[in-house]
Specification:
The protein is built from 11 helices and 9 strands. It has 304 residues and is α/β, with parallel strands linked by helices. The chain has 2 domains: 195 residues, 2-enoyl-CoA Hydratase, Chain A, domain 1, CATH 3.90.226; 70 residues, no CATH class. The strands form 2 sheets. It has a 6-stranded mixed β-sheet, sandwiched between helices. A 3-stranded mixed β-sheet has the order 5-7-8. A hairpin with a 2-residue loop joins strand 1 and strand 2. It is elongated, with a radius of gyration of 24 Å. It starts with 26 loop residues before the first strand and ends in a 12-residue tail after the last helix.
Length: 304
């Protein structure tokens, strides 16, 4: 083995190697009515994302995704710190280049599930949020941080590159120039700078962090939750689209809002009669199918 080479484990660890049933060992999950709380719980290593913790976090996020009652998700870390990112000591177990790509795809899935939840998500940050920890905050809707918190993407000094948001979401949030500065220098920044850059929402004195986060939860729960879901959806999708397409999302959302607010009776819609007609094989359904079934099935050229 050459100097500096990583010894790759003979038996690699697949992307979801730990069987997760909801009985978590490195994560605390609590549901309190409409609020779910996920706490990363490896305080001795600053809540670094081990293979097991990553799998447990993915499971917990999918659990929130599938819930019909949760409206707000709060993510934080135990022991006075948020998350120190991936557990670097386990990386030799990831395997060869192909296995590493599979593992990274798993992390991307985890971040995408978090970002796409139809619930509002809040990262509450104290201590360090670096590497993968910072990537969790970037996939969240809101970030509230203690003034003493520190953040950054120090992967460059380990000789690795971010895999699930450190360059992609980062550039979309702060622009490519700042994304290069943050990633290529690898510095650890004060919390206030994250707020100034628009990376985080709010920075408060350390002793006010819990109160600020809980106040935000109360405000969000007071809203029309259907409107909240629609707004999150059109903002997340519209920002990745051209203006014309993004405005189409807005128009459709406006129509849906009108429907859920009582204006669903559109005169030339059939109010579900088509679906009911398929089940009952009604005259309406038969008439539609008889008219359409063989239409133009002989191709584009009509023979004389």
């Amino acid at each position: 083995m050459t100097d500096g080479a990583i010894a790759i484990a003979t038996e690699t660890v697949p992307p979801s190697s730990h069987h997760v049933s909801g009985e978590y060992e490195q994560l605390i999950y609590v549901e309190d009515g409409p609020v779910a709380r996920v706490t990363l719980d490896r305080p001795r290593v600053h809540n670094a994302l081990s293979l097991q913790l990553s799998d447990e976090l993915t499971h917990a996020l999918e659990r929130v995704r599938d819930s019909g009652t949760v409206q707000v998700l709060v993510i934080r870390g135990s022991g006075g710190t948020f998350c120190a990112g991936d557990d670097i000591t386990e990386m030799p177990r990831w395997g060869d280049a192909n296995a590493v790509m599979r593992r990274v795809h798993g992390y991307q899935h985890m971040a995408n599930v978090l970002e796409e939840l139809d619930k509002v998500t809040i990262s509450v940050v104290e201590g360090f949020a670096v590497g993968g920890g910072l990537e969790i905050t970037m996939a969240s809707d809101f970030v509230v941080a203690a003034r003493s918190a520190r953040w950054g993407m120090p992967e460059i000094d380990v000789g690795i590159t971010p895999g699930w948001g450190g360059t992609t979401r980062m550039a979309r949030l702060v622009g490519r120039r700042m994304a290069k500065e943050i990633n290529l220098l690898g510095a650890l920044h004060p919390a206030a700078r994250a707020a100034e850059l628009g990376l985080w929402n709010r920075v408060v004195p350390d002793d006010r962090l819990d109160a600020e986060a809980e106040h935000l939860v109360r405000v969000l729960l007071s809203k029309n939750q259907q409107a909240v879901r629609q707004l999150k959806f059109i903002i997340n999708n519209g920002v990745e689209a051209d203006l014309h397409t993004a405005q189409a999302f807005e128009a459709l959302s406006a129509g849906l809002t009108g429907a859920v607010n009582g204006g669903w009776r559109v005169p030339d819609a059939d109010a579900g009669a088509g679906i009911a007609g398929f089940t009952a094989k009604s005259d309406l359904w038969r008439a539609r199918r008889d008219l359409a079934r063989d239409l133009w099935t002989d191709g584009p050229v009509l023979e004389a």
